[in-house]
Amino acid sequence: MDDKLMLMIPGPTPVPEQVLLAMAKHPIGHRSGDFSKVMAEVTENLKWLHQTTGDVMMLTVSGTGAVEAAIVNVLSPGDRVLVGANGKFGERWAEVSQAYGLAVETITAAWGQPLDPEQFRATLEADTEKTIKAVIITHSETSTGVLNDLETINRHVKAHGEALIIVDAVTSLGAINLPIDQWGLDVVASGSQKGYMIPPGLGFVSVSARAWDAYKTAKLPRFYLDLGKYRKDAAKNTTPFTPPVNLIVGLQVALRMMQAEGLESIFARHQRMMQATRSAIKALNLPLFAPDVAASPAITSVAPLAPLDSEQIRSLLRKRFDIAMAGGQDHLKGKIFRIGHLGFVCDRDILAAIAALEATLLELEYGGFIPGSGVAAAAKVLTQSR
């Protein structure tokens, strides 16, 4: 059946109908008074979502572009940076930093395991000459479903006194509590196709006063990603370059929906869906890739038992039920599949996805569970946690 695709991947995420209808309207001029009014509202509501009174800039980029902007606006060639790498995206930020000539040191953990905050503490405390200029952390590692302990790592960065913290919040912002001002986070980057409930194409970067001070002396090359240009124009409710007008109009509606739901309710919903999904996977006797203590409320990664094949499971889910789940990346391709439950996703979607997964496992003749046990486990969480 056409037009029944159900996205259960960690991005792009489903888009609400009222957002789609807003984006379907005829474009308006990006230098018009009408668009300036949209910009004013969106900018204010982005600050609400980011839990900050500081600047939040919109760029026409992906999440990777937003993180790259975060890096190049506060650092200079040769600066020493500490990068946490326990998945594809943590490793990517090390590669971006190396491409710009930064002196990169990585603190690593196996894919599927969280970063150890003690390793950051020890390295930062040993830096008595304060040569570390920034620490780059992925909050929710999209490739594995691991949530890193950003709050604790950030405390160690703050104790250092000199280093900035740069956060990849691409799959956490809008799904997981991230109090930017309360924690004193310096630069936080995210992307529109995740918790924001709109299609890909916009990147967001919040910048603290400390980070703006670093911006004044930063010497890495920048032009299109120069956040100073965006800050100057945002003060006039405009943009330095042509923006994706219809995406921003859609964002206006999505942010209104998020405000109506409320931050606490948004975070509770994502937590509930994570718990329901993980409970269901356990009931199906399938191994979870990330441990419970470091599970991301945005993504659940599953490592199917042999002879089950994750790509075969995903293919059958798509063919039979028009449900898309994500595969593993790099060396995990074919070894795990990932269930996205962030953004415009609700309890009903979790139940439907688990029921389809059960039917798929039965078709593949996997006998390691009692039929209906996954749905029952998910339903129990969803009914008890509301």
The level-1 CATH class of the largest domain: Alpha Beta
Taken together, the total number of domains comes to 2
Helical region count? 14
Proportion in helices: 40-55%
Morphology call = globular
Strand content: 15-25%
Task: Kindly provide the radius of gyration, computed on alpha-carbon positions and rounded to a whole number of angstroms.
Answer: 21 Å
DSSP, total strands: 13
**Mean pLDDT across every amino acid position:** 97
The CATH superfamily of the largest domain is: Type I PLP-dependent aspartate aminotransferase-like (Major domain)
What is the CATH architecture term of the largest domain? 3-Layer(aba) Sandwich
- How far the N terminus sits from the C terminus, by CA atoms, comes to 33 Å
Poorly predicted regions: none
Organism: Neosynechococcus sphagnicola sy1
Family: Belongs to the class-V pyridoxal-phosphate-dependent aminotransferase family.
InterPro entries: Aminotrans_V_dom (IPR000192), Aminotrans_V_PyrdxlP_BS (IPR020578), PyrdxlP-dep_Trfase (IPR015424), PyrdxlP-dep_Trfase_major (IPR015421), PyrdxlP-dep_Trfase_small (IPR015422), SP_NH2Trfase/AEP_transaminase (IPR024169)
Protein name: Class V aminotransferase
Features:
single chain, 386 residues, alpha/beta, Aspartate Aminotransferase, domain 2, Aspartate Aminotransferase, domain 1, 2 domains, seven-stranded mixed sheet, four-stranded mixed sheet, 13 strands, 44% helix, globular, Class V aminotransferase, PyrdxlP-dep_Trfase_major, pyridoxal phosphate, L-serine-pyruvate transaminase activity
